[in-house]
Amino acid sequence: MILQKRNRTSIKSGESRYAWGLAMPALTLIVGFIVLPVTVGLGLAFTNAQLLSPTAPAFTGLSNFSTLLGVATTTLNAEKNPDGTFVTDENGEIVYENLRDRTREDSKYPNLIGKSEVRRFSEDKSQGTIKVLLAGDPSFWRSLTNTIFFALVVVPIQGGFALLLALLVNSKLKGRNFFRTIYFIPTVTSMVVISMLWRFIYQNDGLLNKSIANVDSDYQPIDWLSNPKTAMYAIIFMSIWQAVGYHMIIWLGGLQTIPAELYEAVRMDGASAWHEFRYVTIPGLRHTFIFILITITIAALGLFVQVSILTNGGPLDATTTLVHQAFTKGYGRQQIGYGSAISFVFFALVLIISLVQRVLTRKLED
Amino acid sequence: MKTFLKVSKYFAAIFLAIFFAFPLVFMVVSSLKPDFNLLQDTGSYRAFLPVGPISFDNYVGVFDRIPFFMFVMNSLIVATVTTVLGLIVNSMIGFVLARMSFRGKNPIFAIIISTLILPFEVMAIPLLYLMVNLPVISFDGGFRITKGLFNNYQVQILPFIASAVSIFLFMQYFKTLPKELDEAARVDGASWFMIYRKIAMPLAGPAIGTVAILTFLPMWNSYIWPVMTVQDERYRPIMVGLQYFYVNFGTAWGQIMAYLTLLTIPVVILFLSMQRFFVNSIATTGVKG
After folding, report:
1. Which of A191, A307, A343 is nearest to B124 (CA)?
2. Which helix (H) or strand (E) holds A273?
3. Which B residues in the span 100-159 are in contact with A, Cβ-Cβ below 8 Å?
4. Are A63 and A341 in contact (CB under 8 A)?
5. d(Cα A339, Cα A326) in Å, to the nearest integer?
6. Are B129 and A44 contacting, i.e. CB atoms less than 8 angstroms apart?
7. How far apart are CA B52 and CA A227, in angstroms?
8. Are A365 and A285 in contact (CB under 8 A)?
9. Phi, psi of A78 (to 5 degrees)
10. Span B29-37, average pLDDT
């Protein structure tokens, strides 16, 4: 009895030893290259660390975050002529006090120091006042709204387009494997290669402009990537083109798990194709839907490589994104502390949005 | 009505095939043309046909301009070593999580789960800082301690060996193998390592194929991390080589297209020959995820 027990524990402890031994290499790498950098990064976000600096980083409290997230408004008064009327420029626009006087180091407005103008609004021409919105880092706010805009456009379009493709290559279609392969090839091609190709397509004398000009002789070429109005849409279009094949395959996997008997059953009841889709296909794709929603969203929020090659965030920050800002500040300008702070805002956004999606879709899962 | 639907379906399928293929066709075709013809053909159907003076001059130009084969070797070394080491360490921990019971299993599992949704971009900046400041023991006749792990292969390989996705794929695969296999082997006195090595791994073919592709492809395509950590040409991977063409941009499009073709052809061949693994990997992660 005693012997048996000892024997069993020795097997158990042997199992534990082996388990740790086999897990150790991967565990060490995960701790060293994922857990540690994330923890260190969280610490660095509260310092002024520089990439290649001889001085040790100093703790700066919330200063990175207050620069990053700080916003303020102020009201400027019109410059007045000696007779009390407002000074106007050659276009008849009212000239206001210099904002620089309020944002420089010795300003009387401590909350405005170091901030830059984002935009002016609510001009009151009779009173001679105008309000100014300022931010510690206007590029950051632009990157935040760009990132969210990109995700809001890409998630539904790419998800829906991918589903249409999946339905197409899942239907009775001669050569559907061929079509599936063609639709999928952009996703295995490097984003660097794709971006260079589309750079040629989008440029002033590129494929797109010349093709349109061929059809429409009055057409004025648009420099798609240098125009702040079109640059983001150009990136969106290319990104969907590149990634949609991947999600087509995921939808396809979902479609193929729906039992054929279900389709046969509703067909026997004389259901139309729409009813079939509505009452068999859609309910059968719930899990796939949630997975696709979350993966496209996370990928969209991380938008970066395309941007860095096509526009480098420009023109005028029109295509900068959170990750692009983190790299520009953290690597380009070597402000590791500040770049880490941006990375964490990015991570917080990813986390919040995936949690919200999780909660919203939980009902679907039951 | 039915024939109309059928015809429009084929029409859509063919239109979409053109839509997804045209940039790549344009790339290959343009790589064979001199810059003058390349630009002249843009905007007509000729852009997609190998017409005019066709030659491999652009490819010769690429080999003259950059140490192409060195870059290919660098990428192959980095991607292959990462893939092989990744297969070993991720399958071991996947085996442990799927088959063994021991104290500490749940915390390990929790750590791996939580790294699943962590994008690499979040830790890239602090990781760069750690790499630049890491003390490294090097050997050149005698041992020396130097600061910083960059400008070498290790910095391109080490962060990408362990992967939560790969661990998951292995874990799920090992869970499908019957438990009786281990029990029988245990009775015969096999150690856990032997069970992993001689029983589990030989049966894990599909998981190995999937993980190999999911590791190799992103490594071959990697760009941002090597841009940040490798300034030394001798260790530069293939994607970063594209930067050599940024000089005189707009004049060497033919060479750029040739280079892009050289970067893409191996990947497309790999994909076509292992398509089943590709498709299965994505489909199964999606359904189970």
Report:
1. A343
2. helix A273-276
3. 100-105, 108, 111-112, 115, 117-119, 121-130, 132, 158-159
4. no
5. 5
6. yes
7. 34
8. no
9. -70, 145
10. 88
CB A96 within 8 A of CB A80: no
Closest CA to B262 of B70, B25, B68: B68
Of A118, A119, A74, A115, residue with least CA distance to A97: A74
Residue A203: closest CA among chain B residues belongs to which residue?
B250
Q: What are phi and psi of B103, to 5 degrees?
A: -70, 135
Residue B211 CA to residue B85 CA, distance in Å, equals 11
Q: With contact defined as beta carbons under 8 Å apart, do B86 and B211 qualify?
A: yes
- Say whether residue B7 is in contact with chain A using an 8 A CB cutoff: no
Q: Give the 3-state secondary structure of residue A86.
A: strand
Nearest to A179 by CA among B269, B20, B8: B20
What CA–CA distance (Å, rounded) separates B100 from A15? Answer: 7
Q: How far is CA A181 from CA A164, A192, B21, in A?
A: 16, 21, 10
User: Would you give per-residue pLDDT tens digits along chain A (366 residues)?
Assistant: 444 444 444 445 577 888 888 999 999 999 999 999 999 999 999 998 888 877 888 898 888 898 888 888 888 888 888 888 888 888 888 888 888 888 888 888 888 888 888 888 888 888 888 888 888 888 999 999 999 999 999 999 999 999 999 999 988 888 888 999 999 999 989 999 999 999 989 988 888 988 888 888 888 888 899 999 999 999 999 999 999 999 998 898 888 888 888 888 888 888 788 888 888 888 888 888 888 888 899 889 999 999 998 998 878 899 999 999 999 998 988 899 999 999 999 999 998 988 888 888 777 666
Cβ atoms of A136 and A67 within 8 Å: the answer is yes
Q: Is A92 exposed, middle or buried (0-12, 13-18, 19+ CB in 10 A)?
A: exposed
Query: What are the phi and psi torsion angles at A151 (to 5°)?
Result: -65, -45
**In sequence order, what are the beta bridge partners of A120?**
A132
Whether residues B43 and A210 touch (CB distance < 8 A) is answered with: yes
d(CA A336, CA A164): 43
Burial of A2 (0-12, 13-18, 19+ CB in 10 A): exposed
- Beta-carbon contacts of residue B178 (< 8 Å; ≥ 6 apart): none
* Residues sharing a CB contact under 8 Å with residue A318, sequence separation 6 or more, in sequence order: A142, A146, A228, A229, A231, A232, A311
Encoded amino acid at A320, one letter: T
- Residue owning tokens 């790999």: B270
CB B127 within 8 A of CB B149: no
Cβ distance B89 to A25 less than 8 Å, yes or no, reads yes
Question: Which sign does the torsion angle of CA B270, B275, B278, B282 carry?
Answer: positive
**How far is the first Cα of chain A from the last one, in angstroms, to the nearest whole number?**
49
A182 → closest Cβ in B17, B26, B217: B17
